[in-house]
Amino acid sequence: MLGDSAGPSGQAGSAGQAGSLGPAGSFGEVVARRHAAGALVVQPRMGFADPIRMRAGLVATRSARASTVGTITLDSYTRVGDQASVLAALHAGAHLNGYPIVGHSVDTTRAMVRGVLGPDFPIQVRHGSADPRRIVAAVLAAELDATEGGPVSYCLPYGRMPLARAIDCWARCCEQLAEARRLGREPHLETFGGCMMGQLCPPSLLVAISVLEGLFFVQHGLRSISFSYAQQTNADQDEEAVAALRRLVAELLPDVQSHIVIYSYMGVYPRTPQGALLLLEESARLAARTGAARLIVKTAAEAYRIPTIAENVLALESAAAAAAASTDATATDAAPDEQHRRRPGQPADTGIHAQARSLVEAVLEASDDIGRALRTAFARGYLDVPYCLHPDNAGRARGFVDPAGRLQWERLGSLPIRHAVEPVRSAPITAAGLLDALSFVQHRFDHRTPSDRARKPPGEPERARS
Amino acid sequence: MEIDQPLRVFRGHPLDIVVSSMSSDAHTWNLVYLQLLLEEQGHRVTNLGACVPDRDLVAHCRAALPDLIVLSSVNGHGAQDGLRAIRALRRCAELAAIPVVIGGKLDTAGGHGTTTADRLLAAGFEAVFAEDSAIGAFRSFVATLPRRAVKLVGA
Q1: I need a labelling partner for A358 at 20 to 30 A (CA). Which of A17, A277, A290, B135 fits?
Q2: Nearest-CA residue of chain A relative to B84?
Q3: Looking at the complex, does the CB of residue B76 fall below 8 Å from at least one CB of chain A?
Q4: Is ipTM over 0.90?
Q5: Which CATH class is domain A1-331+343-466?
Q6: Does A366 touch chain B (CB under 8 A)?
Q7: B23 touches chain A (CB under 8 A)
Q8: Element (H, E) at A51
Q9: What is the model's pTM?
């Protein structure tokens, strides 16, 4: 892990840090410092059931040749609150797909992070839970205070819990986290709203939900927030979307400590190691070009299985190197002190900001209480997530990937953006058509060669298939 | 989710099919795909979505008495969750004769171990579809299913 002064591709952390028992740095503060120093923070999705292996993963993350923060990803039984299955699996030695922070004792988790967690190495707990009250309690008890999710983004795509209940649970969790501010800590919460469904959600809706969840967090007491956006199918469109997100955050949440976090593509991933690397590098360049402060990486192995520690480290280092190269390449004309502060230029405006702003405004008009406003918005179809099976989602809006690889609206349902977008009526989706759309990025990157990296400007559209 | 009407091509007897994830699996694209695939064959699909607890799965199936129950999982817990789900379904007398199949990425190893499939079959699944290429086998399986006589009479 890097000190503040080190460059984006940095050096391995010193062994001396291993004995550090100092207080954890505030997650938001550490990311802001690194960003100001020109380093993109890269972060894995790593999670292991065994505390010894989990600790080894954190140590390896910290030692990676990149500016990193730690991740503890929880298992999916903990995510749905199924403690019986967690304990049964731990007892039987069965595999879990993450760290069971509620199943392990507070002492176990504290010992697991002791000496790794430190003033310059904060750790975020990632979970995916619509009702994370016990998780948040376990996080705070272990002296961690950074986590992520949201009342919409961790409810609608992932289960059947009524949205109203998830909103109440998340309000309480925000308040639990905000309580820690009284102890001098600055808890950090990241919205997952910019990653809804992982793929095939048009960017304006991702931006709107990310902003709305951030507003919800702030209404419930948090002051350090990050706003997510997941890489989609077209780099130019993604760049416009991140600019729209940044602009809306500045307009609506000017007084909050915040940063933007990009997720490497979350949909069907390239099957070839080369394709996976090219896609990861493209996400790192997106983060660098848009001035994002943090990137959640994905490994080549995730298309098949849970990645190893070494595979995670490789992804972190590859992403950091790609971001650094992109920053260097685009900053050659800038003054030295501007080098790492480059803000996005002016990506073509295809209306993402206008659509996202209309969505956010329509929701906020429903109630001063943002939780209530979100419930009303989904009930009326003012927010409607394509292909989301949740009973509280209207399911009348739909997107598709156009021939240039841009996500477009096919149907708007009741989304209040008819003035800002002309939906394209494409042929009804078939199972085969859905697979094509879901694997558009996979095919595009699996069929690229390494030399395309140099030849092809980022974002140039190309067809996945003939 | 609304599925486009014109795609419902009638090919033989339509089946009533329940498509569902299991308790810990939040993935849904696999479920959306299966719904489209089955509806294109003319079948009627109820999609229960992500993270369906065993009790909800059983309760829905008892109420609906479908012709086929399709469980799909890709989060690596499918073998464990599937064993629990099939025991819960098989404990229910009304559901004893209804075929239940499972498919997806069923363990965290990424292998295609026959032991996992064998355990699932022994526990009461009618078939296990655990590889990418299994979708053809799944379609063939569905095509061979008769619509249950009891439903024809009772309909």
Answers
A1: A290
A2: A85
A3: yes
A4: no
A5: alpha beta
A6: no
A7: yes
A8: helix A51-63
A9: 0.86
